[in-house]
Fold each of these.
Amino acid sequence: MDLFEHQAKELFAKHGVAVPRGGVAWSPEEAEAVAAELGGTVVVKAQVQIGGRGKAGGIQLAKDAAEARAQAERIIGMDIRGHTVRRVLVEEASDIANEYYLAVLHDRASKGYLAMASAEGGMDIEEVAATKPGAIVKVGVNPLIGLRPYHVNQLLYGAGFPPETHKGAAAIVTRLYEVLTAEDAMLVEVNPLVVTTDGQVKALDGKVSLDDSSLFRHPELEEMRDTFAVDPQEQAAKDKGLNYIKLDGWVGIIGNGAGLVMSTLDVVAQAGGKAANFLDVGGGASAETMAAGLEVILSDDKVRSVFVNIFGGITRGDLVAQGILDALDRLGDKVKVPLVVRLDGTNAEEGRRLLAESPSDKVVPAATMLEAAAKAVELAGPPAKEGA
Ligand code: GDP
Ligand code: MN
């Protein structure tokens, strides 16, 4: 679960990371009020869960409350790469002398944590990572040892932070590590960390991704979930207890088992298509689950065909086939696109026979995974043009 900048900064403040003073505003009037209370020049920042807001014009300075109101008017409702701005963060503006980058995160490869820093922070860190990877210093941290002063020194000297920033930056790294571990986050990132013209070091931006599996330990964080940010199809799937992730292709995917679903995405890509989603129905490929899954997938109007890929183990192929047929019955006219079904494993033959006997002209059986992928991609046809 990703947090908004203002939520990330609330966590930062809770753990003693220096952040600018500010408040959230859901309307231009509220923005004006926050700015009036802060006094002086403020910065009005679009709150969306995507980077590059600065470049998109979603971050603007305002020299007084009236101007803050006008900027909020412009920014609220703005679309930043598919994310609608519904609220802004109004903060006291900072006089920036220098911008840096700091992050602490989980590192699967080392089964530990990783701390990263760069003296080339600011809006183009992705470009720095791509063109000058050496400018980003990475220090592995063993979770059993924890972040120690020698890690911090390695990080700050390694990245070439000027000596006068070390004290402030070290305090912030230490506290970011505390945010990561105490709040069960997967990633905590600050870009930019700034040094102001009067020598203060503070987090000007903040990104926090929480570990969903740990949210039960943090009910107060669960409350930060943004119901707007969740895709309506993902929400519907979640309500039905499905493991569904929306993707941006046009071939719908249903499979049993996360591994099988992932390889299904790969074969669809190999066949020249692009998956519209990830949907794992797990062990229970009942009519109930199949209908629920199909319904969610078909509510995405980009979907032009569906590839159902089931390997019967504990799940019996004939039951899955019956589930698919019952689901088709239940959904009736809602099913407008072909369903390519590949069944293998336990009782696959019985399953395929049931499907072959189906009166529905939507079911297309296929013998192998590759054949099914090719068929699903072919029946989907070329992708619809964007916006069409
Ligand atoms: P992002 O573009 O979504 O990563 O948003 P950031 O919060 O990182 O802001 C982008 C850029 O806006 C920063 O790198 C700064 O250059 C600029 N910016 C943000 N806040 C302030 C501020 O208080 N004062 C000044 N002068 N610039 C700011
Ligand atoms: Mn940023």
Amino acid sequence: MTSHSGIEIKGLAHAVRGTEILAPTDLSLPGGRITALIGPNGAGKSTLSRLIARIEPPVTGRVVVNGLDVATTPSDRLAREMAFLGQQAWLASRLRVRELVAFGRWPHCMARPGPADRAAIDRALRDFDLLPLSGRFLDTLSGGQAQRAHLAMTAAQETPWLILDEPLNNLDLAHARALMAHLARLRDGGGSILVVLHDLNLAAGWADHVVAMKAGRIVAEGTPGEVLTAPGLSSLYETEIRVSEHGGRPLVLHHL
Ligand code: ADP
Ligand code: MG
């Protein structure tokens, strides 16, 4: 890993029609780690991840991804460094699963996929349990199957950074766990991941680093053990949350 590995955020802020939705934020996200971004609805998690991925320009501030300033880096270069899957990622439905996944290779091959691109598409289809569905139209899939197809497209981009906004939406327990295990394998191979999660136990079980947001601000940051505490989470979500321990990691109890 180079010394530039990581995301550096300085003075990043955002507002919509004069209303601040992200207060000026400084943040360093470590390379080679899984960082979970948590917080209640409306905290600004999607806003922060969209600004990092340059889906929209910030009102002020700077984001540098592995040494590349996202404001000035050409799109194709940036798309080889960072892949983003947003919360609402529904593309044209008259598209087959394999065609959708192939879009992930666009920054590498434009419209001319070669053997390496086809191999990456096959890997992503296999990793997301989509081989039997690869010829199906997206509008014939269940919500969870379609979510996996979008995840496979993002994975096929094979970038050093992966930014996923609530990727577990619609996924069953087994596929949710498989996704987290996939992210851990990417991390073990030197990859870097930022993932917005609502399932705090998956954050506890798989993340190396946790960032908590509330009302457009980062309110806590650290290891799962440091951030996922009963007082911290109860105050973050404004509801009573108990935390136990399992296998040396926090076990969050909030359905009781
Ligand atoms: P989260 O992903 O943490 O649930 P978001 O980043 O989506 O939160 O939203 C943060 C806040 O900004 C919310 O209060 C949301 O309603 C508001 N917001 C986001 N986008 C817009 C927009 N285009 N117009 C008005 N308000 C917005
Ligand atoms: Mg969101």
